[in-house]
Design a protein that fits this description.
Structural class of chain B: mainly alpha
CATH superfamily of the domain at 67-207 in chain B: MetI-like
Helix content of chain A: 25-40%
Number of strands of chain A: 10
CATH superfamily of the largest domain in chain A: P-loop containing nucleotide triphosphate hydrolases
Number of helices of chain A: 7
Distance between the termini of chain B: 5 Å
CATH topology of the domain at 67-207 in chain B: MetI-like fold
CATH topology of the largest domain in chain A: Rossmann fold
CATH class of the largest domain in chain A: Alpha Beta
Order of helices and strands of chain B: HHHHHHHHHH
Strand content of chain A: 15-25%
CATH architecture of the domain at 67-207 in chain B: Orthogonal Bundle
Distance between the termini of chain A: 44 Å
Radius of gyration of chain B: 23 Å
Largest interface: A-B, 28 and 24 residues
Largest sheet of chain B: none
Number of helices of chain B: 10
Structural class of chain A: alpha/beta
Radius of gyration of chain A: 19 Å
Largest sheet of chain A: 6 strands, mixed
Strand order of the largest sheet of chain A: 6-7-8-3-9-10
Shape of chain A: globular
Oligomer: heterodimer
Chain lengths: 278, 264
């Protein structure tokens, strides 16, 4: 996968190649609602290598987003360990860049202001943070919208700004929580292509949660299937489609093979999850 | 940003808003001159004349200045306390729990009823009036700041903490601007209340101010002077509100986009 080896583009500097960056062991999560307890995640383990793009799919309510929130340091967990680069994960921090479905852009800041703020927080001088912000805005193709406000942008553009913002502070790993879930189908398809092209340049380590099988296979090196609640590792599929991937890869037999494989695995769980609501 | 999408141009919209007051004024003027109406319905032209006279004599200015001093004094203290404590209660559950019972219990009580107690305590001068105005302004500013801070999108806070923002940075750069629209709404309601309570306090117990002017004019059956004072109150309240709206528009660049055409 030559992860981390292609840094000539000047984006991010993760260093190291192919080693385990993230190690999750036997993660447990239980929610308490009054007297009732609901187990959300059950002994889930996962290792992500430097530069790897891993997608997690699962039925809705299976705990895949909760898993990402725990990794982000926003929710406590009840058991197990999480190591990022060998150090335990504790609380939120800029070594993990979160991307949310609802963009979470600050409406009172312009596009450049949103991207640069992450750098301001980290104490970078003004000229430097503007320069970095402009570089990442260019990467996501929004240079000409630098002074616009989020309310003036379409959903796809908003998510590109959010992506630039999170890339700008150069996290060790990107945690994407259904980032295209709020977009219409066409925009979503275009954003997948765009993210793929950007990743080709930055080679970030990515953990990408989605319920869209096509998105997962098209983008990821590895697809993890979660079981219905409580979330457990159900299946793991390596996607050996050649990179860089163009969008027509979705028409190939190899792609369809992966798609059927993931869907067969997921289908059972989706049906189980549906049973729960009856 | 865009050409006005509204069916009316700015001028025509303003004219529409003025149509009813102008028609009412015309009807009033005509009936006062040619009809049979009670004494206290003086023709608008005579009210204007009386107002003008008081402007020239300086009497209106003196009372207006006294009222403004009280209103602005109480507004500043009550507004600052309300916003500060409201924001604090909005981010810290214990603070909210501390305030909740007392605020809920005393909120519906018209604050003017405690004026006699405050007079007994602080005397009949400006201090008791400013105190009652402070109390009246506190409630809407506190409650709006509280719900403004409580309603901040959780993801705004999460993404700031994700970037590594310290708690103070999260408060100053995320919670504060995110709750600003509602904080300003509270301050706007508070301003109107400040004027209302100022006049009410002056009507009850005062030797100066626009409220006193109204009471005094009523007692001496000088209804023209009474209306002059009422007009002055209306003009001040309107001007104060416009200033706040203009400030709001500037402060909320971006946040109000596409909502009230603030960028138009």
């Amino acid at each position: 996968m030559a992860a981390g080896a292609m840094r000539e583009s000047g984006f991010g500097t993760l260093g190291g190649a192919g080693g385990a960056l993230l190690e999750v062991r036997d993660l447990e999560k239980t929610f308490r609602r009054g007297a009732r307890t609901v187990q959300a995640i059950d002994r889930f383990s996962l290792t992500v290598s430097e530069g790897e793009f891993v997608a997690i799919v699962g039925p809705s309510g299976c705990g895949k987003s909760t898993f990402l929130h725990i990794l982000g340091g926003f929710e406590p967990h009840d058991g197990g360990t999480m190591l990022l680069n060998g150090a335990p994960v504790r609380g939120p921090g800029p070594d993990r860049g979160m991307l949310f479905q609802e963009f979470a852009l600050y409406p009172w800041r312009s596009v450049i202001g949103n991207v640069a703020w992450a750098l301001e927080v980290q104490g970078k001088p003004k000229a430097e943070r503007i320069a970095i912000a402009e570089r990442y805005l260019k990467l996501v193709g929004l240079s000409q919208f630098r002074d616009a406000y989020p309310a003036e942008l379409s959903g796809g553009m908003k998510q590109r700004v959010a992506l630039a913002r999170v890339l700008a502070f150069e996290p060790r790993i990107l945690l994407m929580d259904e980032p295209f879930g709020a977009l219409d189908a066409q925009t979503r398809e275009l954003m997948q292509e765009e993210l793929n092209a950007i990743w080709q340049q930055t080679r970030n380590t990515v953990l990408f949660v989605t319920h869209d099988i096509d998105e997962a296979i098209y983008l990821a090196d590895r697809v993890i299937v979660f079981t219905a609640r409580p979330g457990r590792l159900k299946d793991e599929i390596r996607v050996k489609l050649e990179r860089p991937r163009r969008i027509d890869v979705k028409k190939t037999a190899a792609y369809m093979g992966y798609r059927n494989r993931v869907w067969d695995s997921l289908r059972e769980e989706v049906l189980k999850a549906r049973e729960e609501f009856r | 940003m865009k050409a006005a999408a509204a069916p009316f141009s700015r001028g025509r919209r303003a004219a529409l808003g003025l149509a009813l007051p102008l028609a009412a004024l015309a009807a009033w003027e005509l009936s006062a001159r040619y009809g049979t109406v009670p004494d206290y319905l003086i023709a608008p032209s005579r009210i204007l004349a009386a107002t003008w006279e008081m402007v020239l004599s300086g009497e209106l200015w003196r009372h207006t200045a006294d009222s403004l001093l009280r209103a602005i004094g109480g507004y500043a203290i009550g507004g600052a306390a309300g916003v500060a404590m409201g924001l604090l209660a909005g981010i810290a559950r214990p603070v909210e729990r501390f305030y909740d019972p007392i605020v809920s219990l005393t909120y519906p009580v018209p604050k003017i009823v405690v004026l006699p107690i405050l007079i007994a305590w602080l005397g009949a001068g400006d201090a008791s009036k400013i105190a009652v105005i402070t109390a009246a302004v506190f409630y809407p500013t506190f409650i709006n700041a509280l719900y403004g801070a409580k309603g901040v999108n959780r993801l705004f806070v999460w993404s700031a903490r994700n970037m590594g923002a310290a708690p103070l940075q999260v408060f100053a750069k995320v919670i504060l601007p995110a709750s600003l629209p509602q904080v300003l709404t509270g301050l706007r309601i508070g301003l109107a209340l400040a004027f209302i309570v100022t006049v009410a306090a002056e009507l009850q117990n005062s030797r100066s101010g626009l409220g006193y002017l109204i009471a005094d004019a009523e007692n001496s059956l000088r209804f023209d002077l009474m209306y002059a004072a009422i007009i002055a109150i209306g003009v001040i309240g309107f001007a104060g509100d416009r200033v706040l709206v203009a400030l709001r528009r500037r402060a909320l660049a971006g946040q109000t986009l596409g909502k009230e055409g603030a960028h138009g």
